[in-house]
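[step 3/7] fold_predict: job queued, chain A
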Amino acid sequence: MSYRLIDRAAAHKEIADAARWYNRQQQGLAKKFQAHIKEKAGKLRTNPYLFQVRYHDIRSAPLQRVPFMIHYLVDEARKAVIVIAVMHTHRDTDDWQQRR
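[step 4/7] structure written:
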């Protein structure tokens, strides 16, 4: 069974900001970054419990080849994965933990 993927506005903005930053570093890197996001999102939709709970009920899925993690909640009643943050691994988790 596949879960719906819901991006909160803040997470969507973080993805867009990171993609712009990667593209400024080298043309085409934004597409690679977004491909990593899409690949991991597909895994979350088919198996949202694949990654462990890290902060209360928030799970974190590391991206491959880029230092970012997708932080998300699983809403079993709605069969949804709610992405609350997509952040660089060196950022402080206090920045997003209140977003639930």
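[step 5/7] annotate
The chain has one domain: 4-95.
The mean pLDDT is 90.
exit 0
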